[in-house]
Amino acid sequence: MYLNMLKQEEKSAFYSLAHALAVSHEGISEAEHNVLNSTLQEMGISKPAQLLDVKEACTVFVSNASKRIALLELLLIALVDDDFADDEETMVSKIVDYFGFDTSNIDRAASWAESILAGHRSGLRFIQG
């Protein structure tokens, strides 16, 4: 939704974070795989040849706005399969810490992500009749 607002280098760093989050537990679900592909399309980039580690990727985000965009979008990925696994929660907490945010930001962003996903699913049901 907001990934097009990121700078070019932040887009590649975001994909590294998104991929790390998706593989943080029992592999990538089909829903997570679809969202990862959608993020590439939304950002207008190809899959980076080399992924950054989580800490290094987090340092690419300088402004609080870009960090918040990353957090919101990462929670969409974490929640898309209706399972915020412990490993995903640990990864998000680590990213929030690297960003210098308070952990209360996780709850706010998760609430937003859940409402967006509910609206998306409702729209799909309407489209499908």
From TrEMBL:
Residues 24-109 form the Co-chaperone DjlA N-terminal domain. Pfam families: TerB (PF05099). This is Co-chaperone DjlA N-terminal domain-containing protein.
